């Protein structure tokens, strides 16, 4: 499909620079088939049905942005995927000043050697020493805010907590699963009281999620792989929920992509551990989920293509036009949408 079919005009004023407070007071556009309703996130227990299940991503964002020097050159790096115990694939700023086997000094006794430049321009950074890389990042790294926020203000201490979900447990993501940022302990208690279950899986979100689509046709776009896992017990419980008539609703596109990657025809959602580079565009047949809670996405992004595949492109273009006109806040710190496709 042509990428320009997924374009729309978005005013800069629509981009949220801070999250709502409290988190569950964010606005929520409910798109149920052809019906649109303006609600807030704390309404979820009244909107979902007993027996439904929300699926959260329990990845934890690491301080994956680094600023260092190679000789007289300033080098910026954003880690996006672990390749081994001490090596991460990274997107590098000022990469023209970098050569194979150059050492980058990131300060605070943290350094890495650059090698194996890939076709997408990323480098493999192998960190020196024996301390865990997470320890090194804790000394020298910064929270990797999305570029559409970082370009408007610097990262600060608030982001260390604002950009983590209440489910964050397993470190490894370089971007937050932002739909889950709206959840609070009080909201989870209300959902539990309403008979709405929840499960967790892990997908370590990579920086590739922020990369623009630079081709004219979706067939020519290559997704970056991300590592994820669903254990056998979780898969079995999710299959049981659907067998009993409950709906599996992914909280965030990361949860959705992993659930769809784990689905096996005839077996339902199966245990999964490994990389996924699934790219969902209109025409895709969803097999593992019955709904999606997700924030508002960039024009011409793979994520807007995904929600268009779920609900229909014209439906989502109209929903986004309504959201913009009605003052909804977009992107990672913005408001959210609950998408329930017609069966």
UniProtKB/TrEMBL annotation:
Pfam families: Queuosine_synth. Coiled coil: none annotated. GO terms for cellular component: cytoplasm. Its EC number is 2.4.99.17. It is an enzyme of class 2 (transferase). GO terms for molecular function: S-adenosylmethionine:tRNA ribosyltransferase-isomerase activity. Pathway: tRNA modification; tRNA-queuosine biosynthesis. It catalyses: 7-aminomethyl-7-carbaguanosine(34) in tRNA + S-adenosyl-L-methionine = epoxyqueuosine(34) in tRNA + adenine + L-methionine + 2 H(+). It comes from the Bacteria. Keywords: Cytoplasm, Glycosyltransferase, Isomerase, Queuosine biosynthesis, S-adenosyl-L-methionine, Transferase. Signal peptide: none annotated. One of its GO terms (biological process) is tRNA queuosine(34) biosynthetic process. It is found in: Cytoplasm. NCBIfam families: PRK00147.1, queA. Monomer. Transfers and isomerizes the ribose moiety from AdoMet to the 7-aminomethyl group of 7-deazaguanine (preQ1-tRNA) to give epoxyqueuosine (oQ-tRNA). Belongs to the QueA family. This is S-adenosylmethionine:tRNA ribosyltransferase-isomerase.
């Amino acid at each position: 499909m042509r990428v320009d079919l997924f374009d729309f005009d978005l005013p800069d004023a629509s981009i949220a620079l801070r999250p709502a407070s409290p988190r569950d007071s964010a606005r929520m556009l409910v798109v149920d088939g052809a019906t649109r309703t303006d609600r807030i996130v704390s309404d979820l227990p009244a909107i979902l049905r007993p027996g439904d299940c929300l699926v959260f991503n329990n990845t934890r964002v690491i301080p994956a942005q680094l600023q260092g020097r190679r000789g007289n050159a300033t080098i910026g790096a954003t880690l996006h995927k672990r390749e081994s115990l001490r090596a991460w694939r990274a997107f590098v700023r000022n990469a023209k000043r970098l050569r194979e086997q150059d050492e980058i000094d990131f300060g605070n006794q943290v350094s890495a050697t650059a090698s194996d430049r890939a076709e997408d321009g990323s480098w493999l950074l192998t960190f020196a020493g024996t301390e865990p890389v997470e320890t090194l990042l804790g000394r020298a790294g910064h929270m990797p805010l999305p570029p559409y926020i970082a370009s408007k203000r610097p990262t600060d201490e608030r982001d260390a907590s604002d950009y983590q979900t209440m489910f964050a447990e397993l470190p490894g993501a370089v971007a937050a699963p932002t739909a889950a940022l709206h959840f609070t302990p009080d909201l989870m208690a209300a959902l539990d009281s309403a008979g709405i279950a929840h499960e967790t899986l892990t997908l370590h979100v990579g920086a590739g999620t922020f990369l623009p689509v630079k081709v004219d046709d979706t067939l020519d776009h290559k997704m970056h792989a991300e590592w994820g896992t669903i254990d056998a017990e979780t898969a079995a419980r999710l299959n049981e929920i659907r067998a009993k008539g409950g709906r599996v609703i992914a909280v965030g596109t990361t949860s959705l992509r992993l659930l769809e990657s784990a689905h096996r025809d005839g077996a339902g959602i199966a245990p999964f551990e490994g990389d996924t580079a699934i790219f969902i565009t209109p025409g895709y047949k969803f097999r593992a989920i019955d709904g999606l809670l997700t924030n508002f996405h960039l024009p011409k992004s793979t994520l807007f293509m995904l929600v268009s595949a779920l609900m229909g492109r014209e439906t989502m273009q109209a929903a986004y036009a309504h959201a913009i006109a009605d003052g909804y806040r977009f992107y990672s710190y913005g408001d959210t949408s609950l998408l329930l496709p017609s069966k």
